[in-house]
Each structure stands twice: as structure tokens, then as C-alpha cells.
Design goal:
Layout (H helix, E strand, L loop, with lengths): L3 E5 L8 H10 L5 E5 H4 L7 H10 L2 E7 L7 H10 L17 E7 L17 H4 L1 H10 L2 E2 L3 E3 L7 H20 L2
Parallel strand pairs: 1-2, 1-3, 3-4, 4-5, 4-6
Helix pairs in contact: 1-7
């Protein structure tokens, strides 16, 4: 069974009912560890050694976050800067993450059609996620197709339930080796 680390970052986790539901849906999966960066590091001072140890204990690294201003929340960027160190994640001797897999699980307030070449954001999710894809490439991790819940601010209860179920199914499948 593959071990999954969810590095969750959010500016205001107490205000995010949708992301909380996603986390609750996978919390009981035996192979999943939830690492709530915002709550663990309220001062944004990341313990690089602790975080690198967590990475080494897991096979799949999930970055879960709401997509703000075409990027991750600041805590996830700080995590990347502190944890994905030269000599550990890249560069000479920096092959410790090689062979692991990376999954982005993100939510957007805007609808999926806004993230098209004809939409108001003008770029696709895949294009906007290129910096994270490049990070996976540099560190030797395999980039997995992202999990995106779009338009969460206007979703029906049925769509929210479907997205939450799909997230659970995706992570359970990854843990099982699918």
C-alpha cells in the first residue's frame, strides 16, 4: 500500500468548509497522513528537518490548497523554499524524492470554464500549474494529473458531495496502487 502525505495549506482554514470536507473524506484512509501546515506553523517558520522526514516516509505527496491569485497559499510556497533543499531534493546528492509521485489537489472559487483559453483567466489549469509541475520534474517526482474542484463557491450540494467522493476515491485508488 502506498503511503500518502497531504500537505494542506490555506490562508484561513477555519473559513474553508469545502477543503475541510475534502480532508474529512480521506482522514480515515489507513495510508493517509494529513499535515496541516497552516495550523502546524502559525508563525510560518517551517521545521525543514521534520518536513523532510515526513517526505521520506511517504510515497505520494499531495499539495492540497485553494488556488489564490494563480498560485499556492504563502505557507505552501514557504514550505517549498524551506523543505525542497539543494542536496536533498535536487542538485548533487539531491535525489531523495526521486520516484515519489506528486499530486496537486486544489479548489477554485471560479468555474472550470474560467480556466480555458476563452475564459476570463485565459489559461488552463495545466498551464497555471506549470511551476509545480516543473518542481516535480526537478525533484524527480512523477507528476500526477491534478484533482481540481472548480467553482466551489457556487456548487450545488450534489456537486460538492460528488467532488468529495471523487477525492476519496482518487486517494484510495492511489494508496491501493491504481
Amino acid at each position: 500500500m502506498a503511503r500518502i502525505l497531504i500537505n494542506y495549506g490555506h490562508r484561513q482554514p477555519e473559513a474553508s468548509q469545502f477543503n475541510a470536507r475534502l480532508l474529512d473524506a480521506v482522514r480515515d484512509l489507513p495510508a493517509v497522513t494529513i499535515n496541516d501546515l497552516t495550523r502546524h506553523y502559525p508563525d510560518r517558520v517551517i521545521d525543514g528537518e521534520r518536513e523532510r522526514a515526513l517526505l521520506l516516509e511517504h510515497d505520494i505527496i499531495v499539495l492540497q490548497f485553494p488556488f489564490y491569485w494563480y498560485s499556492t497559499p504563502a505557507i505552501l510556497k514557504e514550505w517549498q523554499d524551506e523543505v525542497l533543499a539543494y542536496g536533498f531534493a535536487y542538485g548533487p546528492g539531491g535525489e531523495r524524492l526521486r520516484g515519489k509521485r506528486m499530486l496537486v489537489a486544489m479548489t477554485t472559487g471560479g468555474p472550470a470554464e474560467a480556466y480555458t483559453h476563452g475564459g476570463y483567466n485565459q489559461y488552463t489549469f495545466e498551464e497555471l500549474l506549470l511551476p509545480l509541475h516543473a518542481t516535480a520534474n526537478l525533484t524527480g517526482m512523477t507528476w500526477l494529473p491534478p484533482f481540481v474542484s472548480a467553482g466551489v463557491l457556487r456548487q450545488s450540494a450534489e456537486q460538492t458531495s460528488a467532488d468529495v467522493a471523487a477525492y476519496r476515491q482518487r486517494l484510495a485508488g492511489l494508496a491501493a496502487g491504481d
